[in-house]
Design goal:
It is a single chain. With about 475 residues, the protein is an alpha+beta fold. The protein has three domains: about 170 residues, 3-Layer(bba) Sandwich (FAD/NAD(P)-binding domain), CATH 3.50.50.60; about 120 residues, protoporphyrinogen ix oxidase, domain 3; about 110 residues, Polyamine Oxidase, Chain A, domain 2 (Alpha-Beta Complex), CATH 3.90.660. The protein has 18 helices and 22 strands. It has a seven-stranded mixed sheet. Strands 12-2-1-16-22 form a five-stranded parallel sheet. Strand 14 and strand 15 form a beta hairpin. The longest helix has 24 residues.
Length: about 475
Amino acid sequence: MDIPQPHVVIVGGGIAGLAAAFFLRDAPVRVTVLEGQPRIGGKLAVSEIAGIAVDEGAESLLVTRPEGTDLIAAVGLADQRVAPGTTAAAIWTRGALRPLPRRQFMGVPSDMRELGASGVVSGAGLARAGQDLSLPPTPREGDVAVADYVAARFGPEVVDRLVDPLLGGVYAGLASELSFEATLPALAAASRRHSSLAEAAGSLLPPEPAGGAAQGGTRRQVFTTLAGGLGALPSVLGKESGADLRTGAIVRELARTADGWRLTVGSAADPEYVTADAVILATPARPAGRLLSSVAGSAAAALGEIRYASMAIVTLAYPRQAVPASARQGSGYLVPAVDGHAVKAVTVSTVKWPHLAEAAAAELDIVRCSVGRIGEEALLQRSDDELAALAAAELAEATGVAGAPAATRVSRWGGGLPQYTVGHLDRVARIRAAVAALPGLAVSGAAYDGVGIPACVATARAAVDQIMTYLGSARRGPGADCPPR
């Protein structure tokens, strides 16, 4: 008699859930992905604006971590990878667009002369930042907010006008709340080896190219994307996984059974019950906590402590002649929250990504404006037309772009970005310890070890390894002549 394969159910069809399904493709298991939304992909989506396919969510991934690029290669999309034409960026602050210092690590400067030449901070701010080189080591007991530690070394201006905008671009969060250990782990570790934070930052940066960047030296590639947009990845990943992908399948309850798990799917009036030998929760913190509330109360409580920021991407298409040449000198700019603007980051996509410029046939420039930080929910309650008009007005003020955009698109990401506030690493440790006590259960996604695609993929790999170890031990266990059902 044929022995049925173990059934693994993955709750959540974002990049983490789809990666987990893909990693299980060659395992002797049956895989079902349950996604509550009408489509798979989570925060990866692509659609056309002015006839050009442009990402609505995440537009690039780090190549300095191999998990994302390895996954792209594994699904056969390596030949679709493209590199940015430029990563040079600016800060719109103190009334002008000012170059982002090159020798910095997430806004933490390593070269005081370059910081001064950029004009990002005032003379007084530069003088205070320079004190980092002579100050005694700053004591640190446990986790602290990024702003607290960086300001102790450099003063508040570096935090407000450099560190905060870079962290805001990644997390839509505030340096005054975000965890130093969780958001900048490499720098936190290096700061224990150097009394100067500038020296710690410098130790993490690649050497200057021979001759310097200004003399034509090359810099290592940091980001990549796909020619069709990163939003094209989920559908390929789902297909290549061979899993049963179900959309519109909201999981409302997770319960332990004598020999596995039972998931309640659909409405209370017409529930469907799905049984599984193992479950991977690849959802944001809140739905994961809700599902764990009846089986792992301590994990659910810790998940409930993770806040999320909402944001929107306003994409604007302009006639090429409307965009000044000065606005096309780099990939875009960041905006400090302290300056009071709604838009926190701008990417001139047709400059950053040459393949988009080719698609635009020299007729259009595509500009992505990121709107919304933690605590700015009222701003995001404005209509699409209002947000597009606001983004266009601030873009015109910063760059001098002329006239109205030829096309606009507003993509909203409600509760899209987890906030790694002080104590996040301890929180995650509590979640994982509680989940590990439940055989056949694992968690993955952006709530834990990083919000970028490579970090999410890494959590998927870890979850799959955990589940397969459990299924293997269950087969070998006493009285386990056949897989658990």
